[in-house]
Amino acid sequence: MELIVPTKQTHEGFCSFHSTRKEIAHLSGCNKRRFRSSSIKVVVGQLRKQRQSKVFAISRSETLGTNCRLSCVEKRPHVQGSISENFEEFESNNYLRRLVRNGELEESFKHLESMVYGGDIPDIIPCTSLIRGFCRIGQTKKATRVLEILEDSGAVPDVITYNVLISGYCKSGEIDNALKVLDRMSVAPDVVTYNTILRTLCDSGKLKQAMHVLDRMLQRECYPDVITYTILIEATCKESGVGQAMKLLDEMRSKGCIPDVVTYNVLINGICKEGRLNEAIKFLNNMPSYGCQPNVITHNIILRSMCSTGRWMDAEKLLADMVRKGCSPSVVTFNILINFLCRKGLLGRAIDLLEKMPKYGCTPNSLSYNPLLHAFCKEKKMDRAIEYLEVMVSRGCYPDIVTYNTLLTALCKDGKVDVAVEILNQLSDKGCSPVLITYNTVIDGLSKVGKTELAIELLNEMREKGLQPDIITYSSLVSGLSREGKVDEAIKFFHDLEGLDVRPNAITYNAIMLGLCKARQTDRAIDFLAYMISKGCKPTESTYTILIEGIAYEGLAEEALELLNELCSRGVMKKSSAEQVVVKM
């Protein structure tokens, strides 16, 4: 068979086809419904007239596929009407694009397989989107299969395609597979490829391996950028200290890569974490001489460190300095300061700062109000806490679940469980769904004031909402039932949680034993202790204290004292704890 080498004439034919393809794409984009088979026939007819006498036989020669890249196709026999074949390939790729755009990943995959089986070359753009889609839902193996199909079809994936798959593997924690993709790339990796891998290795604490990847990057003449060095400097600060990180900074500068504000922020954060706040402040002041102006994040790092070390006056001064230098504070800046003041009990200053926020163009958020509410609750100033909750809502800042959990905890501790239940019932209407800790707080509060029936109702409600009770939930109920003298019901709950694969802890066992001892059933309590040990749960000092007091409560004070002395001699109970038990006896 004589092979025809593509000539200028055949190249013009292909160009003509591609210009016509643009017209088809334009027609279909303008009015998809009108672009029916009649329109297609007209275009195909025009193409046939242009290419009437041409018959192509192609053998491992380079042709232009629908992905607009040169690709190699297997030897085929003489094909009459190759224009219509190319048009079918074009339409097939269009359909693939639509499927991917609509998020129909499985259908897209099936269509891709069908396309390649039929000899069509898929477009790399929708295939890259398909790889991204599978990676987003954690199906990295399927994403890899798409790449394999793409490569086997004769299409040439570009660096973006490989980067998407590598990123997918990195996000799912499959760094070894990401490195395998790097090894098999048919195109040269770029700086984005390496930065993605370096970030994952550094976040996983694999700095040594990351440095090997950096060496490999340099060997392949792919030069690190500011992001590359910043990733490595941050990891070095964490693993080897700021001293080693500074060496990387010097190397970075020597290679003509200029550090940016993010690089310096990483270093300042490292210096602060090493407890060298004064050095960090000096570094901050020197930044303009390095050709880089500090930003609000730089100042926030220093402010947080000042607050954590109790240097409030310095923090106030730094806030004034940053404003004077034209660096506007952010909501985060104010939240750092408000949180610190509230922890120190300086609520007046915290409120002043909160009220000043709008002056600096900052609108307080729930993280601005939450420390105040928590501080009021801690000081048992519930009226002030509720007052600021109302202020918060009136200003268009809606409380989050942390706000409500803080309030509910304080109400339950204060014995105002009815108010807590009322707020809990209103949460869904306020667009704030209760979480496990929300229910646990109220269930515990109800159990402590003898309202276990209502607590059990809440247990059923949380189950209906798809929330799984944990050991804290059951321990609260078991303790409440035992306190109310409903020890048999408490034991039933105890066995229920065992059936639910929730492992009881010492608190749960102690609650049952306390209930049994109060019911003058110390013998059963001792049996329960043996059961506790057989299940691998270690008794605590409280466990033995409950049993000794139970024995004494039944009129066996002498035996209780004898047991207490033996436990002290074995080192099971501290002398101070034993003395407290003796006083009670």
UniProtKB/TrEMBL annotation:
UniProt entry tagged with the keyword Repeat: yes
PPR repeats: 123-157, 158-188, 190-224, 225-259, 260-294, 295-329, 330-364, 365-399, 400-434, 435-469, 470-504, 505-539, 540-574
Record carries keyword Repeat: yes
Superkingdom of this protein's organism: Eukaryota
Keywords of this entry: Repeat
Pfam families: PPR_1 (PF12854), PPR_2 (PF13041)
SUPFAM superfamilies in UniProt: HCP-like
Family classification: Belongs to the PPR family. P subfamily.
Name by which UniProt lists this protein: Pentatricopeptide repeat-containing protein
UniProt source species: Nicotiana attenuata
